Amino acid sequence: MTPERLDSLLQRALETGTIPSDATPEERAELVPVLGAAGSLRLNAAQVDSEASASMPTARARFQRHIEKLVAEHLKEVAEDIDRRVRRMPSPKVIIVSSEETRAELEDVLPASSKSAVVGWTTAEAHASANELLELTSPILDEARAKEETELLERWREGAGRGERAASGWAETLEAASDARVEALLYEDGADHEAWQCPACGRLSASGGRCPLDGTETEQRDDGLDLAVHQTVAHGGTVWAVTAHSDLGPAEGVGALLRY
Ligand SMILES: [Zn+2]
């Protein structure tokens, strides 16, 4: 029994599935354990193969979970970044550009402080340029600004009508700004007026004479708006240039929402 003879018998046995009939009992005795091993080899291979194909979905699912975890982490970072910026701004307006799917997930992790600053959501091509994003978001921002302006002027009209928490015209507005009462200074684009300022305490008024607080002679200035803006901002108020409404016209182009 040469190795070649055994190989040939083995080959035929593997092809046919049975030990060739011309094999001697001695050869048969050699072949049986080899074929058994081959069988278990084939069985192992089949098992490995079936495990591999069974584990494909498992691997894919694991990969999918990994991706989802990365996306969730990324969205959390984005949300935190938005919130950090929002908290630094006095009255921020946020427009978020994302896919519809991302929007739902991002809304879930966006802190309330930032959620209230969001004035719009929109979608864009994945690699949209800064200019394209600006074109896309500008109308949303304009609309949000117009809405806010409408609300501010409604509050101002109501307040002025009742004679509370609203200043109309330069005299009232300059005085309120000096008293730290202005919550929001409203002015029409281009509005300005002369004003008198006390050199001692900085108090503003629309007419000259002595400062009512310290008796110092006030000085005439021609930049009443700048002075009013200064006083307003210095006392934590905000300033709003009215561009889409003409309500301030009868009030010399200036007014204010007051804290009290
Ligand atoms: Zn003074």
What is the gist of this entry?
It is built from 7 helices and 9 strands, in the order ααβααβαβαββββαββ. The chain is an alpha/beta fold and 260 residues long.
Describe the protein's topology:
Elements: H1 3-16, H2 25-88, E1 94-97, H3 100-109, H4 112-115, E2 118-122, H5 130-162, E3 166-168, H6 169-178, E4 182-188, E5 195-197, E6 204-205, E7 219-221, H7 224-234, E8 238-242, E9 254-258
Parallel strand pairs: 1-2, 4-8
Antiparallel strand pairs: 3-9, 4-9, 5-6, 5-7
The structure holds zinc ion (ZN).
Question: Can you put this structure into words, describing what you see?
Answer:
This protein has 260 residues and is an alpha/beta fold. It folds into three domains: 60 residues; 80 residues, no CATH class; 107 residues, 2-Layer Sandwich (60s Ribosomal Protein L30, Chain: A), CATH 3.30.1330. Helix content is 56%, strand content 14%. It is built from seven helices and nine strands; from the N terminus they run H-H-E-H-H-E-H-E-H-E-E-E-E-H-E-E. The strands form three sheets. It has a four-stranded mixed β-sheet with strand order 3-9-4-8, with helices on both faces. A three-stranded antiparallel β-sheet has the order 6-5-7. It has a two-stranded parallel ribbon with strand order 1-2. A hairpin with a 6-residue loop joins strand 5 and strand 6. Helix 1 crosses helix 2, helix 2 crosses helix 3 and helix 6 packs parallel to helix 7. The longest helix has 64 residues. It is rod-shaped and about 135 Å long. The mean pLDDT is 88. The structure holds zinc ion (ZN). The site of zinc ion has 8 residues, from loops.
